[in-house]
Amino acid sequence: MSTEIDSPAGDAGAAAGSTDDGRLDRRVMLVAGVVVLGAVMSILDITVVAVAQRTFQDIFGKTQAQVAWTATGYTLALAMVIPLTGYAADRFGTKRLYIMAIVLFTAGSALCSTASSLEMLVFFRVLQGLGGGMLMPLGMTIMTRAAGPERLGRVMAILGVPMLLGPIFGPILGGWLIDVASWHWIFLINVPIGIIATVYAWRVLDRDDVHPSESFDFIGMLLLSPGLALFLYGVSSIPAAKQQHGTMYTTNVVVPTLLGIALVVAFVPWALRKRNIHPLVQLRLFTNRYMTVAVITMTLFAMAFFGASLLFTLYFQQVRGESPLSSGWLVAPQGFGAMLTMPVAGFLADKIGPGKVVLTGLVLDTVGMAMLIPVDDKTSYAYIITSFVIMGFGMGSTMMPVFTAALASLKDADIARGSTLMNITQQIAISMGTALFSVLLTNAYNSHPSTVLPTLAVQNGADPATVGLSPGQMAQGLHFMGQSFGGVYLVATVLVGLCLVPSFFLPRKPMEKPVDPAALMGA
Protein backbone atom coordinates (compact mmCIF):
# COMPACT_ATOMS: atom_id res chain seq x y z
CA MET A 1 0.00 0.00 0.00
CA SER A 2 1.33 3.43 -0.89
CA THR A 3 2.25 5.68 1.98
CA GLU A 4 2.29 8.87 -0.09
CA ILE A 5 0.10 11.78 0.80
CA ASP A 6 -1.66 12.34 -2.46
CA SER A 7 -3.37 15.34 -3.93
CA PRO A 8 -5.02 15.62 -7.30
CA ALA A 9 -2.08 16.82 -9.36
CA GLY A 10 1.41 17.84 -8.41
CA ASP A 11 0.65 21.46 -9.16
CA ALA A 12 -2.71 21.59 -7.51
CA GLY A 13 -1.19 22.38 -4.16
CA ALA A 14 -1.45 26.02 -4.92
CA ALA A 15 -5.15 25.88 -4.46
CA ALA A 16 -4.81 24.35 -1.04
CA GLY A 17 -1.73 26.22 -0.05
CA SER A 18 -3.41 28.41 2.50
CA THR A 19 -6.39 28.59 4.76
CA ASP A 20 -9.17 31.06 4.23
CA ASP A 21 -7.56 33.56 6.60
CA GLY A 22 -4.31 33.52 4.67
CA ARG A 23 -2.31 31.24 6.93
CA LEU A 24 -0.24 28.43 5.44
CA ASP A 25 -1.99 25.11 5.97
CA ARG A 26 -0.56 21.87 7.33
CA ARG A 27 0.01 20.47 3.85
CA VAL A 28 2.33 23.29 2.78
CA MET A 29 4.22 23.16 6.08
CA LEU A 30 4.85 19.43 5.61
CA VAL A 31 6.22 20.06 2.12
CA ALA A 32 8.34 22.92 3.51
CA GLY A 33 9.87 20.51 6.03
CA VAL A 34 11.02 18.21 3.22
CA VAL A 35 12.60 21.06 1.29
CA VAL A 36 14.31 22.60 4.32
CA LEU A 37 15.88 19.25 5.26
CA GLY A 38 17.40 18.95 1.80
CA ALA A 39 18.61 22.55 1.84
CA VAL A 40 20.16 22.14 5.29
CA MET A 41 22.25 19.18 4.11
CA SER A 42 23.48 20.90 0.97
CA ILE A 43 24.26 24.34 2.41
CA LEU A 44 25.68 23.24 5.76
CA ASP A 45 28.03 20.86 3.97
CA ILE A 46 29.69 23.72 2.09
CA THR A 47 30.48 25.73 5.22
CA VAL A 48 31.31 22.74 7.43
CA VAL A 49 34.02 21.62 5.01
CA ALA A 50 35.48 25.14 4.95
CA VAL A 51 36.48 24.95 8.61
CA ALA A 52 38.21 21.58 8.05
CA GLN A 53 40.72 22.83 5.49
CA ARG A 54 43.62 23.00 7.97
CA THR A 55 42.72 19.53 9.27
CA PHE A 56 42.85 18.11 5.73
CA GLN A 57 46.32 19.63 5.28
CA ASP A 58 47.57 17.87 8.40
CA ILE A 59 45.85 14.51 7.74
CA PHE A 60 46.79 14.15 4.06
CA GLY A 61 50.06 16.10 4.12
CA LYS A 62 48.97 18.51 1.39
CA THR A 63 49.15 22.26 0.82
CA GLN A 64 46.20 24.64 1.16
CA ALA A 65 46.01 24.99 -2.62
CA GLN A 66 45.62 21.22 -2.91
CA VAL A 67 43.04 20.72 -0.15
CA ALA A 68 41.03 23.65 -1.54
CA TRP A 69 39.87 21.18 -4.18
CA THR A 70 37.59 19.63 -1.55
CA ALA A 71 35.54 22.83 -1.89
CA THR A 72 36.26 23.62 -5.55
CA GLY A 73 35.30 20.13 -6.76
CA TYR A 74 31.94 20.41 -5.00
CA THR A 75 31.32 23.86 -6.53
CA LEU A 76 32.18 22.70 -10.05
CA ALA A 77 29.79 19.75 -9.71
CA LEU A 78 27.05 22.19 -8.68
CA ALA A 79 27.75 24.32 -11.73
CA MET A 80 27.48 21.34 -14.07
CA VAL A 81 24.28 19.83 -12.67
CA ILE A 82 22.17 22.93 -11.92
CA PRO A 83 21.48 23.70 -15.63
CA LEU A 84 20.15 20.15 -16.08
CA THR A 85 17.69 20.42 -13.21
CA GLY A 86 14.94 22.32 -15.01
CA TYR A 87 14.78 19.82 -17.88
CA ALA A 88 15.04 16.80 -15.58
CA ALA A 89 12.23 18.09 -13.35
CA ASP A 90 9.94 18.54 -16.35
CA ARG A 91 10.94 15.18 -17.82
CA PHE A 92 10.94 12.88 -14.78
CA GLY A 93 8.96 14.80 -12.13
CA THR A 94 10.11 16.76 -9.09
CA LYS A 95 9.43 14.03 -6.52
CA ARG A 96 11.49 11.32 -8.23
CA LEU A 97 14.32 13.72 -8.98
CA TYR A 98 14.35 15.23 -5.47
CA ILE A 99 14.56 11.79 -3.82
CA MET A 100 17.31 10.78 -6.24
CA ALA A 101 19.26 13.95 -5.39
CA ILE A 102 18.99 13.25 -1.66
CA VAL A 103 20.14 9.64 -2.13
CA LEU A 104 23.09 10.70 -4.29
CA PHE A 105 24.13 13.40 -1.83
CA THR A 106 23.83 11.03 1.14
CA ALA A 107 25.80 8.29 -0.61
CA GLY A 108 28.50 10.81 -1.52
CA SER A 109 28.66 11.92 2.13
CA ALA A 110 29.10 8.35 3.36
CA LEU A 111 31.85 7.73 0.80
CA CYS A 112 33.66 10.95 1.80
CA SER A 113 33.99 9.63 5.34
CA THR A 114 35.83 6.56 4.00
CA ALA A 115 38.41 8.51 1.95
CA SER A 116 42.01 7.49 2.64
CA SER A 117 43.59 10.06 0.34
CA LEU A 118 42.88 13.61 -0.78
CA GLU A 119 42.22 12.43 -4.32
CA MET A 120 39.51 10.04 -3.11
CA LEU A 121 37.96 12.77 -0.98
CA VAL A 122 37.79 15.22 -3.89
CA PHE A 123 36.20 12.56 -6.15
CA PHE A 124 33.54 11.75 -3.55
CA ARG A 125 32.91 15.48 -3.01
CA VAL A 126 32.10 15.74 -6.73
CA LEU A 127 29.50 12.99 -6.27
CA GLN A 128 28.06 14.95 -3.37
CA GLY A 129 27.87 18.06 -5.53
CA LEU A 130 25.97 16.26 -8.29
CA GLY A 131 23.21 15.55 -5.76
CA GLY A 132 23.50 18.78 -3.79
CA GLY A 133 23.31 20.96 -6.89
CA MET A 134 19.76 19.76 -7.63
CA LEU A 135 18.36 20.18 -4.11
CA MET A 136 17.95 23.97 -4.00
CA PRO A 137 16.40 24.60 -7.46
CA LEU A 138 14.13 21.57 -7.03
CA GLY A 139 13.16 22.70 -3.54
CA MET A 140 12.15 26.13 -4.81
CA THR A 141 10.10 24.57 -7.60
CA ILE A 142 8.31 22.26 -5.18
CA MET A 143 7.55 25.08 -2.73
CA THR A 144 6.31 27.46 -5.41
CA ARG A 145 3.91 24.88 -6.83
CA ALA A 146 2.69 23.82 -3.38
CA ALA A 147 1.83 27.29 -2.05
CA GLY A 148 0.98 29.35 -5.12
CA PRO A 149 2.25 32.85 -5.98
CA GLU A 150 0.03 34.63 -3.45
CA ARG A 151 1.74 32.79 -0.54
CA LEU A 152 5.21 32.52 -2.06
CA GLY A 153 6.77 35.17 0.19
CA ARG A 154 6.01 33.20 3.33
CA VAL A 155 7.17 29.83 2.02
CA MET A 156 10.34 31.38 0.62
CA ALA A 157 11.01 32.82 4.07
CA ILE A 158 10.89 29.26 5.41
CA LEU A 159 13.24 28.01 2.70
CA GLY A 160 15.58 30.95 3.34
CA VAL A 161 16.36 29.83 6.90
CA PRO A 162 19.01 27.24 5.95
CA MET A 163 20.36 29.54 3.22
CA LEU A 164 21.09 32.21 5.81
CA LEU A 165 22.00 30.13 8.83
CA GLY A 166 24.18 27.61 6.99
CA PRO A 167 27.12 30.01 6.59
CA ILE A 168 26.73 31.06 10.24
CA PHE A 169 26.43 27.73 12.03
CA GLY A 170 28.38 25.58 9.57
CA PRO A 171 31.78 26.62 10.99
CA ILE A 172 30.48 26.14 14.53
CA LEU A 173 29.22 22.64 13.80
CA GLY A 174 32.32 21.70 11.82
CA GLY A 175 34.71 22.94 14.50
CA TRP A 176 32.79 21.13 17.22
CA LEU A 177 32.66 17.81 15.36
CA ILE A 178 36.38 17.92 14.59
CA ASP A 179 37.20 18.78 18.21
CA VAL A 180 35.04 16.11 19.90
CA ALA A 181 35.23 13.36 17.27
CA SER A 182 37.10 13.46 13.94
CA TRP A 183 36.87 15.00 10.49
CA HIS A 184 34.94 11.95 9.26
CA TRP A 185 31.88 13.11 11.20
CA ILE A 186 31.43 16.29 9.19
CA PHE A 187 30.32 13.91 6.42
CA LEU A 188 28.78 11.08 8.46
CA ILE A 189 26.32 13.49 10.07
CA ASN A 190 24.61 13.79 6.68
CA VAL A 191 23.79 10.07 6.53
CA PRO A 192 21.00 9.90 9.15
CA ILE A 193 19.63 13.25 7.95
CA GLY A 194 19.61 11.97 4.38
CA ILE A 195 17.77 8.78 5.36
CA ILE A 196 15.14 10.77 7.24
CA ALA A 197 14.79 13.23 4.34
CA THR A 198 14.35 10.39 1.82
CA VAL A 199 11.56 8.71 3.80
CA TYR A 200 9.97 12.09 4.56
CA ALA A 201 9.97 13.09 0.89
CA TRP A 202 8.55 9.72 -0.21
CA ARG A 203 5.63 10.02 2.19
CA VAL A 204 4.83 13.73 1.87
CA LEU A 205 5.48 14.89 -1.69
CA ASP A 206 2.74 14.50 -4.27
CA ARG A 207 2.96 11.66 -6.75
CA ASP A 208 4.52 12.85 -10.00
CA ASP A 209 2.08 13.32 -12.85
CA VAL A 210 4.31 14.15 -15.80
CA HIS A 211 3.67 13.93 -19.52
CA PRO A 212 7.16 14.28 -21.02
CA SER A 213 7.26 15.64 -24.51
CA GLU A 214 10.49 17.65 -24.54
CA SER A 215 13.63 16.45 -26.27
CA PHE A 216 16.89 16.85 -24.40
CA ASP A 217 19.10 19.77 -25.44
CA PHE A 218 22.40 17.89 -25.85
CA ILE A 219 24.17 20.75 -27.62
CA GLY A 220 23.08 23.16 -24.90
CA MET A 221 24.45 20.78 -22.26
CA LEU A 222 27.80 20.49 -24.06
CA LEU A 223 28.03 24.28 -24.16
CA LEU A 224 26.61 25.46 -20.84
CA SER A 225 27.57 22.88 -18.20
CA PRO A 226 31.30 22.68 -19.11
CA GLY A 227 31.29 26.43 -19.77
CA LEU A 228 30.05 27.23 -16.27
CA ALA A 229 32.42 24.72 -14.69
CA LEU A 230 35.46 26.08 -16.55
CA PHE A 231 34.51 29.68 -15.83
CA LEU A 232 34.03 29.04 -12.10
CA TYR A 233 37.27 27.03 -11.96
CA GLY A 234 39.18 29.91 -13.51
CA VAL A 235 37.58 32.51 -11.25
CA SER A 236 38.10 30.40 -8.10
CA SER A 237 41.80 30.03 -9.03
CA ILE A 238 42.40 33.81 -9.00
CA PRO A 239 43.16 34.18 -5.24
CA ALA A 240 45.73 31.35 -5.27
CA ALA A 241 47.37 32.69 -8.43
CA LYS A 242 47.53 36.18 -6.95
CA GLN A 243 49.09 34.90 -3.76
CA GLN A 244 51.63 32.56 -5.39
CA HIS A 245 52.60 34.52 -8.50
CA GLY A 246 51.61 38.10 -7.69
CA THR A 247 49.28 38.24 -10.69
CA MET A 248 46.00 36.67 -11.71
CA TYR A 249 47.05 36.44 -15.37
CA THR A 250 48.32 32.87 -15.16
CA THR A 251 47.56 29.89 -17.36
CA ASN A 252 45.43 28.25 -14.66
CA VAL A 253 43.21 31.34 -14.54
CA VAL A 254 43.14 32.80 -18.03
CA VAL A 255 42.72 29.64 -20.16
CA PRO A 256 39.74 28.04 -18.32
CA THR A 257 38.08 31.42 -17.72
CA LEU A 258 38.21 32.49 -21.37
CA LEU A 259 37.23 29.05 -22.61
CA GLY A 260 34.33 28.95 -20.16
CA ILE A 261 33.15 32.42 -21.24
CA ALA A 262 33.37 31.37 -24.90
CA LEU A 263 31.20 28.29 -24.29
CA VAL A 264 28.61 30.26 -22.28
CA VAL A 265 28.49 33.01 -24.93
CA ALA A 266 28.03 30.37 -27.64
CA PHE A 267 25.12 28.94 -25.65
CA VAL A 268 23.17 32.21 -25.83
CA PRO A 269 22.37 32.27 -29.58
CA TRP A 270 21.79 28.52 -29.50
CA ALA A 271 19.24 28.86 -26.68
CA LEU A 272 17.47 31.73 -28.45
CA ARG A 273 17.08 29.96 -31.81
CA LYS A 274 13.44 29.75 -32.87
CA ARG A 275 13.78 26.04 -33.56
CA ASN A 276 15.17 25.43 -30.08
CA ILE A 277 11.82 25.31 -28.30
CA HIS A 278 13.13 23.69 -25.11
CA PRO A 279 16.69 24.90 -24.40
CA LEU A 280 18.63 23.65 -21.38
CA VAL A 281 18.14 27.05 -19.69
CA GLN A 282 15.23 29.15 -20.89
CA LEU A 283 16.81 32.55 -21.62
CA ARG A 284 13.49 33.82 -22.97
CA LEU A 285 12.44 34.20 -19.33
CA PHE A 286 14.37 37.48 -19.47
CA THR A 287 11.45 38.89 -21.45
CA ASN A 288 9.73 38.89 -18.06
CA ARG A 289 10.64 42.25 -16.59
CA TYR A 290 10.50 41.11 -12.98
CA MET A 291 12.72 38.11 -13.68
CA THR A 292 15.33 40.35 -15.33
CA VAL A 293 15.32 42.84 -12.48
CA ALA A 294 15.50 40.05 -9.90
CA VAL A 295 18.50 38.47 -11.66
CA ILE A 296 20.38 41.79 -11.73
CA THR A 297 19.58 42.45 -8.06
CA MET A 298 20.57 38.91 -7.05
CA THR A 299 23.87 39.12 -8.95
CA LEU A 300 25.01 42.33 -7.29
CA PHE A 301 23.77 41.31 -3.85
CA ALA A 302 25.25 37.79 -3.86
CA MET A 303 28.62 39.10 -5.06
CA ALA A 304 28.77 41.76 -2.36
CA PHE A 305 27.17 40.08 0.63
CA PHE A 306 28.35 36.48 0.33
CA GLY A 307 31.78 37.46 -0.97
CA ALA A 308 32.35 39.82 1.96
CA SER A 309 30.71 37.48 4.50
CA LEU A 310 33.36 34.82 3.88
CA LEU A 311 35.91 37.29 5.25
CA PHE A 312 34.12 37.85 8.57
CA THR A 313 35.50 34.73 10.28
CA LEU A 314 38.88 35.30 8.61
CA TYR A 315 39.10 38.74 10.26
CA PHE A 316 38.54 37.27 13.72
CA GLN A 317 41.10 34.49 13.14
CA GLN A 318 43.88 36.48 11.47
CA VAL A 319 43.53 39.88 13.11
CA ARG A 320 42.03 39.06 16.51
CA GLY A 321 43.57 35.59 17.02
CA GLU A 322 40.27 33.75 17.59
CA SER A 323 39.83 30.03 16.95
CA PRO A 324 37.58 28.80 14.10
CA LEU A 325 34.92 27.81 16.61
CA SER A 326 35.03 31.15 18.44
CA SER A 327 34.95 33.12 15.19
CA GLY A 328 31.90 31.12 14.12
CA TRP A 329 30.06 32.13 17.28
CA LEU A 330 31.06 35.77 16.83
CA VAL A 331 29.34 36.00 13.43
CA ALA A 332 26.28 34.06 14.61
CA PRO A 333 24.36 37.27 15.59
CA GLN A 334 23.98 37.95 11.88
CA GLY A 335 21.94 34.75 11.59
CA PHE A 336 19.87 35.63 14.64
CA GLY A 337 19.04 39.01 13.08
CA ALA A 338 17.91 37.30 9.88
CA MET A 339 15.74 34.87 11.86
CA LEU A 340 13.83 37.79 13.36
CA THR A 341 13.06 39.63 10.13
CA MET A 342 12.66 36.77 7.64
CA PRO A 343 9.15 35.64 8.68
CA VAL A 344 7.97 39.25 8.81
CA ALA A 345 9.55 39.98 5.42
CA GLY A 346 7.86 36.93 3.89
CA PHE A 347 4.46 38.01 5.22
CA LEU A 348 4.92 41.59 4.00
CA ALA A 349 6.14 40.45 0.58
CA ASP A 350 2.80 38.68 0.13
CA LYS A 351 0.75 41.59 1.48
CA ILE A 352 2.42 44.70 0.00
CA GLY A 353 4.68 43.25 -2.69
CA PRO A 354 8.35 42.21 -2.48
CA GLY A 355 9.72 45.47 -3.92
CA LYS A 356 9.13 47.57 -0.79
CA VAL A 357 10.50 44.83 1.46
CA VAL A 358 13.68 44.43 -0.60
CA LEU A 359 14.35 48.17 -0.65
CA THR A 360 14.10 48.31 3.14
CA GLY A 361 16.36 45.28 3.53
CA LEU A 362 19.00 46.70 1.20
CA VAL A 363 19.12 49.95 3.15
CA LEU A 364 19.79 47.95 6.33
CA ASP A 365 22.41 45.83 4.53
CA THR A 366 24.18 48.93 3.26
CA VAL A 367 24.20 50.60 6.69
CA GLY A 368 25.47 47.45 8.41
CA MET A 369 28.24 46.90 5.86
CA ALA A 370 29.24 50.57 5.97
CA MET A 371 29.75 50.30 9.74
CA LEU A 372 32.64 47.88 9.07
CA ILE A 373 34.60 50.30 6.85
CA PRO A 374 36.58 51.86 9.76
CA VAL A 375 37.33 48.45 11.34
CA ASP A 376 40.88 47.72 12.56
CA ASP A 377 42.59 45.50 15.12
CA LYS A 378 41.17 47.48 18.06
CA THR A 379 37.52 47.79 17.03
CA SER A 380 35.24 46.67 19.85
CA TYR A 381 33.39 43.42 19.45
CA ALA A 382 30.15 45.11 20.53
CA TYR A 383 30.40 47.51 17.58
CA ILE A 384 31.17 44.73 15.09
CA ILE A 385 28.37 42.49 16.39
CA THR A 386 25.93 45.40 16.15
CA SER A 387 26.81 45.78 12.46
CA PHE A 388 26.30 42.02 11.98
CA VAL A 389 22.84 42.20 13.56
CA ILE A 390 21.83 45.11 11.30
CA MET A 391 23.09 43.21 8.26
CA GLY A 392 21.15 40.18 9.46
CA PHE A 393 17.98 42.27 9.65
CA GLY A 394 18.62 43.39 6.08
CA MET A 395 19.57 39.96 4.79
CA GLY A 396 16.36 38.44 6.13
CA SER A 397 14.42 41.10 4.23
CA THR A 398 16.32 40.89 0.95
CA MET A 399 17.32 37.58 -0.53
CA MET A 400 14.17 35.45 -0.40
CA PRO A 401 11.83 38.34 -1.39
CA VAL A 402 13.99 38.71 -4.52
CA PHE A 403 13.37 35.04 -5.33
CA THR A 404 9.69 35.64 -4.59
CA ALA A 405 9.53 38.53 -7.07
CA ALA A 406 11.06 36.37 -9.79
CA LEU A 407 9.19 33.08 -9.35
CA ALA A 408 5.77 34.52 -8.47
CA SER A 409 5.70 36.29 -11.83
CA LEU A 410 6.10 33.07 -13.84
CA LYS A 411 3.56 30.73 -15.31
CA ASP A 412 3.47 27.34 -13.61
CA ALA A 413 5.12 25.66 -16.58
CA ASP A 414 8.11 28.04 -16.29
CA ILE A 415 8.72 27.71 -12.53
CA ALA A 416 11.32 24.91 -12.73
CA ARG A 417 13.26 26.77 -15.43
CA GLY A 418 13.04 30.04 -13.52
CA SER A 419 14.31 28.43 -10.33
CA THR A 420 17.21 26.92 -12.28
CA LEU A 421 18.08 30.30 -13.79
CA MET A 422 18.05 32.05 -10.40
CA ASN A 423 20.23 29.37 -8.79
CA ILE A 424 22.77 29.52 -11.63
CA THR A 425 22.91 33.29 -11.20
CA GLN A 426 23.44 32.99 -7.47
CA GLN A 427 26.19 30.37 -7.78
CA ILE A 428 28.13 32.39 -10.37
CA ALA A 429 27.77 35.61 -8.37
CA ILE A 430 28.97 34.01 -5.13
CA SER A 431 32.04 32.55 -6.85
CA MET A 432 32.85 35.89 -8.48
CA GLY A 433 32.36 37.73 -5.20
CA THR A 434 34.59 35.30 -3.31
CA ALA A 435 37.36 35.73 -5.86
CA LEU A 436 36.93 39.53 -5.98
CA PHE A 437 37.19 40.10 -2.25
CA SER A 438 39.98 37.56 -1.77
CA VAL A 439 42.03 39.42 -4.39
CA LEU A 440 41.22 42.80 -2.84
CA LEU A 441 42.34 41.54 0.57
CA THR A 442 45.54 40.05 -0.88
CA ASN A 443 46.35 43.33 -2.63
CA ALA A 444 45.76 45.24 0.58
CA TYR A 445 48.07 42.88 2.47
CA ASN A 446 50.75 43.25 -0.20
CA SER A 447 50.67 47.03 0.16
CA HIS A 448 52.25 46.57 3.63
CA PRO A 449 54.39 43.44 3.07
CA SER A 450 57.16 44.39 5.51
CA THR A 451 54.89 43.82 8.53
CA VAL A 452 51.69 42.14 7.35
CA LEU A 453 53.18 39.07 5.69
CA PRO A 454 55.61 38.27 8.56
CA THR A 455 52.71 38.79 10.98
CA LEU A 456 50.65 36.28 9.01
CA ALA A 457 53.54 33.81 9.26
CA VAL A 458 53.57 34.24 13.04
CA GLN A 459 49.77 33.75 13.14
CA ASN A 460 50.32 30.44 11.33
CA GLY A 461 52.82 29.19 13.91
CA ALA A 462 56.18 30.73 12.95
CA ASP A 463 58.57 32.01 15.62
CA PRO A 464 58.52 35.87 15.78
CA ALA A 465 62.30 35.86 16.22
CA THR A 466 62.71 33.76 13.08
CA VAL A 467 60.78 36.18 10.89
CA GLY A 468 62.50 39.15 12.51
CA LEU A 469 59.52 40.95 14.06
CA SER A 470 59.62 42.96 17.25
CA PRO A 471 56.47 43.32 19.41
CA GLY A 472 55.99 46.81 17.97
CA GLN A 473 56.18 45.54 14.42
CA MET A 474 53.72 42.76 15.27
CA ALA A 475 51.27 45.35 16.56
CA GLN A 476 51.76 47.44 13.43
CA GLY A 477 51.20 44.40 11.22
CA LEU A 478 47.92 43.58 12.99
CA HIS A 479 46.82 47.20 12.59
CA PHE A 480 47.47 47.16 8.85
CA MET A 481 45.70 43.79 8.53
CA GLY A 482 42.62 45.18 10.25
CA GLN A 483 42.59 48.22 7.99
CA SER A 484 42.88 45.95 4.96
CA PHE A 485 39.57 44.33 5.86
CA GLY A 486 37.99 47.77 6.21
CA GLY A 487 39.04 48.66 2.66
CA VAL A 488 37.40 45.49 1.34
CA TYR A 489 34.18 46.29 3.18
CA LEU A 490 34.12 49.70 1.48
CA VAL A 491 33.87 47.98 -1.91
CA ALA A 492 31.19 45.64 -0.54
CA THR A 493 29.20 48.62 0.73
CA VAL A 494 29.25 50.25 -2.70
CA LEU A 495 28.08 47.04 -4.39
CA VAL A 496 25.24 46.52 -1.90
CA GLY A 497 24.21 50.14 -2.36
CA LEU A 498 24.09 49.66 -6.14
CA CYS A 499 21.48 46.93 -5.60
CA LEU A 500 19.02 49.69 -4.68
CA VAL A 501 18.84 50.78 -8.33
CA PRO A 502 17.43 47.57 -9.89
CA SER A 503 15.40 46.71 -6.78
CA PHE A 504 13.43 49.94 -7.28
CA PHE A 505 11.74 48.20 -10.25
CA LEU A 506 10.63 45.07 -8.36
CA PRO A 507 6.83 44.66 -7.92
CA ARG A 508 5.38 46.87 -5.19
CA LYS A 509 1.99 45.23 -4.95
CA PRO A 510 0.83 41.70 -4.11
CA MET A 511 1.07 39.18 -6.92
CA GLU A 512 -2.07 37.11 -6.47
CA LYS A 513 -1.80 35.02 -9.62
CA PRO A 514 0.85 34.07 -12.20
CA VAL A 515 1.52 36.90 -14.57
CA ASP A 516 1.80 36.40 -18.31
CA PRO A 517 5.37 37.38 -19.27
CA ALA A 518 4.08 38.92 -22.50
CA ALA A 519 1.90 41.25 -20.47
CA LEU A 520 4.85 42.24 -18.29
CA MET A 521 6.82 43.35 -21.34
CA GLY A 522 4.27 46.02 -21.99
CA ALA A 523 3.65 46.90 -18.34
Structure overview:
It is a single chain. The protein is mainly alpha-helical and 523 residues long. The chain folds into three domains: 8-213, MFS general substrate transporter like domains (Growth Hormone, Chain: A, Up-down Bundle), CATH 1.20.1250; 215-277; 284-523, MFS general substrate transporter like domains (Growth Hormone, Chain: A), CATH 1.20.1250. The protein is built from 24 helices and no strands. Helix 4 runs antiparallel to helix 10 (218-236). Residues 1-22 and 514-523 have low confidence and may be disordered.
Q: Determine the N-to-C terminus distance.
A: 50 Å
Low-confidence stretches: 1-22, 514-523
Give the overall average pLDDT: 79
Q: Which architecture of the largest domain per CATH?
A: Up-down Bundle
Output the CATH class name of the largest domain. Answer: Mainly Alpha
Q: What's the structural domain tally? A: 3
CATH superfamily of the largest domain: MFS general substrate transporter like domains
Backbone shape: globular
Q: What's the total helix number?
A: 24
Helix amount: over 70%
Q: At the third CATH level, what is the topology name of the largest domain?
A: Growth Hormone, Chain: A
Largest sheet: none
The H/E string reads: HHHHHHHHHHHHHHHHHHHHHHHH
What's the quaternary structure here? single chain
